Amino acid sequence: MWKNYLKIAYRNLLKNKIFSLINILGLAIGMAACLLILQYVNFELSYDQFHEKADRIYRVRHDRYIDGELQYQKAQSFIPTGEAMEHEFPEVKEYTTLFRIAEQSDIIMTYQQENGDAINFTEKEVYHAKGNLLDIFSLTITEGQKDIKSLAPKTVLISTSAAKKYFGEASPINKTLSHNYADGYKIVGVFEDLPKNSHLKFDFLFAWMSLSGDEGEDNQNWRWDGFYTYLLLNPGADVKALEEKFSDLIRKYQAGGASGNVSSKFALQPLTAIHLYSNLIGEAEPNGEAKIVYTLLALALFILTIAWINYVNLSTTRSLDRVKEIGVRKVVGSGKVEIIKQFLVESMLVNLLALAAALTIIQILYTSFAEFTGVDMSLTLLQKPEFWMGVILLLFVGSFAAGLYPAFVISSFEPIKALKGKFYETRKSTSFWNLRHALVIFQFTISISLIAASLIVNKQLSYMKTRSLGINIDHTLVVNTHATGTDSLFTKNLSVLRDRLNSLSTIKGVVASYNIPGKEHLSNFPNFRHSKNPEELVLLYFTRIDYNFIPAFNVDLVAGRNFSEGIDDQYTMIMNVEAIHALGFEDPQEAIGYEVTWGNEHIGKAEIVGVVDFRSTSFNHQNYPVAYTSTFFPFKYLSIRFDKINGENARQNIALVENNWEAIFPEIPFEYFFLDDFFNSQYQEEQKFSQLLGIFTLLAIIVACLGLYAIASLTVLQRTKEVGVRKIMGASLKSLLLLLSKNFLLLVLIAGGISLPIMQFVVDRWMENYPHRAEISWWTFLLPIALILVITALTIGYQIIKASLVNPSKLLKYE
Fold this sequence. Notes:
The protein has 25 helices and 24 strands.
């Protein structure tokens, strides 16, 4: 019996090839879009799930307060935090503390070969670790000692990729590595590279080294919060109850660690929630955003729903061609159940063919999608058995959900009227027609809302990327100096290089600095004194610039003067307007000449000589309140501004800088990047989301248009005779267009009215986390409605014009 159903279904598909192709194509696009989005969503949700004890691992978050007011929340805490918590709280089974050496800039890793030659590479993912790291995280040791829990002094673990980079196919065990800050660490093991869905990506795990030279002093350091602390809790531990004990621990251990006005609070972050729900200072890497992931998930469901609605519309549209077939089958004895089964089999076949087409589309886009989104396809749903079980379930649910209603509608045809092709004269047609209107309104509402969302996201992204920064970072090449301190010989050689480059005609300016625009500021002091109330403390970030920073970058100097070469020292500072306002000054001019003090017992003081106004971070965040000094910190970056730097000119200028660099610093690798690219990389997540949303919104509109085509065909088909009569009576094409399209245009306007509050909700929710927001104009809400109106008019107009061009006598013969 089922074979007969399948044969009939197959024959019907071949009989109406164009209809079948449109039907399958619409479903295939919807399924492919949905499955591709689910690949991305699944990857984002899978972060850190690969750790065997992931559900019991937590990171300690540090919140800094001054006078009871929150100053910042940081992903890092203090050196002794983990050890103290393990000692004080029975809920804590193990801890590990990680210190990222390459936090401010890349470091140079060195392997000294037996022949005396050195292999040098710059590295980013370099950590020093204490505590039982390998008892907390699931690292697979592939070579060396397998039962390592904690690292012995002067030892290091390296990743498989790092081992190949430095040692090729040779074993790295018992060989030694060094970096800028540590010499002679013996390699005791090699671990498998961490997967891409890890918020921590380390290639080197060095044993802990004392940062102060005194281990005991390190363990009393409750001031420097630059260390990641992870806890493994005992099974069944009450996280909330544990967090309530943290205030007592802080009072016990941090006494004397900070001034009385400065206080700390700790909180626990579940390991698996860090990637999507944490956007703190000092994150190990830029994290994702839950709102983006769940927006895309909703988009996937919308596209798939629209595709299924299209199937309903297309199937019921085609029912007009099959009313006589159903009438005949009913007359010869087919019951309603048999007809329903037949149409469900057809629905299953169409969905199965669409799924096969969708998987083919995914296979074609496989590599491009992975590169664009950064998804590791080896970790995706396609590799999981449960995914394929879900696909099979989706196939059956989709087939029944999309095919059941058309099956019931078609099987309810009254035999006599069906034989005459007069189904729409029956009383049952009213509810059928109303449902079709509701489905079309739903499609229009989703389409309008998606277009509006895409416009809003693009407008906000464009606003952030084009707004004035108060600093000119165009045509700027940045070289990583790998400086580790304020070594006088290095500084002197850097000055020689700067003079050489400044003498070149194509170079507009050379700047040495500790930070660059777009680089996260991590050095701060929480105890600057407020100008009007010395007992009130203020947190400011510290960094170093040279005297050429302001003129070379065309920085907006709003008050005072620039640093002067050879004159200014640690007793002078330039501050940005955010720092001036934090210190209590309303007008930048008021701050000039003011002597600012900071530290316990006023250990530091300096005169404010200038005030600048420019962005040191993206418009995603509030600008840092920064104090600029001409001393203290090493010059980690050298920025070279050119008249222009593009195409062949770029290659020549890069080679020019490289040659001069290697002449003065032959032992330091030449590494560079362009400053504007680096700064704009802060918008990478928004950029990716904007492009994904735009692409899949377009696909949703295409799929919805197929449904619109179906409903337009149905209308023209139903009113064919009426069109013929009206043409004979002298009706113009314009009047026919207005007559047959007004209902659809009304549906669009209804959908537009429904979508307006949805769009407003999207604006409010999307913009709430941006401190700097684009102004959303009224046309942003009306343009999507107008666009759908145009698409609708063109689609319906095509059908009406096609019918109106037919000879009226042929239209009158239509049954």
